Structure prediction request, 397 residues.
Amino acid sequence: MTEIFTGNFTQQEPIPQDGIDAAMAVLQHGRLHRYNEAEGEVAETAQLELEYAEMMGAKYCLAVASGGYALATSLRAVGVKPGDKVLTNAFTLAPVPGAIASVGAVPLFVGVTEGLVIDLDDLAAKADQADVLMLSHMRGHIVDMDALMAIADANGLIVIEDCAHTMGAKWGDTWSGRHGVIGCYSCQTYKHVNSGEGGLLVCDDDEIMARCVMLSGSYMIYEKHKAGPPAEAYEDLRYYTPNVSGRMDNLRAAILRPQLRNLMAQCQAWNDRYAVVDQGLADTPGLTRIDRPAQEHFVASSHQFLLLDWDDAAIEDVVARCKTRGVELKWFGAPTPVAFTSRYDSWRYAPSDPMPASDRILRGVMDMRLPLTFSLDDCAMIARIIKEEVTAVGNQR
Ligand SMILES: *Cc1c(COP(=O)(O)O)cnc(C)c1O
Prediction:
């Protein structure tokens, strides 16, 4: 019997009831704008910031319109200027080089390893060409952050972390997003909390955070930011910092606050699913599973494996055969960008030198979402289907 999977890879869970109730309360009182507070009220957005700062052990937190907006705001706040080069991962998602381009800066791509993390040798080799590294923990894979920070410190690199897939994850004992100067998170539907769109950034530096708050569109009412720096921090820079409007609103914040309270349980549920898929793919000929170091306390809201050195036709065959059985694999190596998936050389506004060792890996990256609407049995079936199809195509190679 040929198993067919009928689940939906893009169906997330409903918003929890306490989030729905909080959203209804905001709709009823009508004060959706974050600075629209009744006498004595602390708006949902300001409360979300306080709660996330506390969770992350950060001095400050700012909620914004999207993860990509958080990244661009961070670049501006640390002083990136048009024409500057910014180091970033060759394996990442389009909004990351897009954030760099949005401030007129130029992405300088750093290679990827078989562990799907930034290549630290390549980073060390390129470190003298830029002042800022926008480090993307793409698909939740976290590089050895101790080794990375040693390279950054030795070269005076400012590190901004793209934690779109590492909210709730840690390297060693430290939350992802807390090694660099700023940590940026996404609250978009396919990340770890869901308000449709939205972003958060955390930071301990008074001046950088004051700039972020002003940039996000605080006008001169920045003192409403309970999770922001003291008023003195704004004294001069409020005259020199443009308003690049991108605030979060109280409706989204209301939806997010109950989800944050439940974040670690959700993270465990993702990892349980990941473990079933990953175990199920063990001993598949030609298929390379990704090594996860012991210090990497990841959150696996998606699964990746490699079909290293397979030719394009064979990989396309695997994708097509899995699709007919209901399993949606995304191939990062596809020569033309498809849906959400693209490679560094498809971002033609950002010219790059070829990186053959990284190209070999990217050509083999297969990617799949694992929404929490899938049961563990679903995950076991998905793994069986992939294993059978990879084995069948592999046998014909
Ligand atoms: C989703 C994502 C972003 C951007 O987040 P948005 O909230 O959609 O703007 C940035 N980096 C990575 C790796 C992502 O997956």
Q: What stands out?
A: The mean pLDDT is 97.
